[in-house]
Hints:
Distance between the termini: 25 Å
Structural class: alpha/beta
Number of strands: 6
Amino acid sequence: MRVVLDTGILLAALITSGTPPDLIYRAWRKKAFELITSEWQLGELRRVSRYPKLRKYLKPAEVGTLVNGLRRQATLLHELPKLDISPDPDDNPILATAIAGLADYLVTGDKRDLLSLQKVETAQIITARAFADRLGLYSAD
């Protein structure tokens, strides 16, 4: 199963343990699925992690470890197609990652723009909670 985790999901995995993003990230580390990422996303992770509102929750070393782990263990795409699909143009590169990576799932918390699309080519767009449930990591209440 090929999966793209959006940048917010990856950062949330570092911030709060025991949550669906954290459980999903740990499942990937145990090779439960193939993670697809891109050079664009690695750059975005570094950039977004420096926002003042996130710096109090994220240690630069943790973000560096995350980025290095993704570079070594995820499927890393270097070139992405140009897209104009999302109502938010900033979301198009993550959609391009899902398309170019032939992802089965794009996991996101972006309710307004990404989740409203529901699907992009082969990738179903779902929440972290829904994906964790599919992996059997987080039982529904």
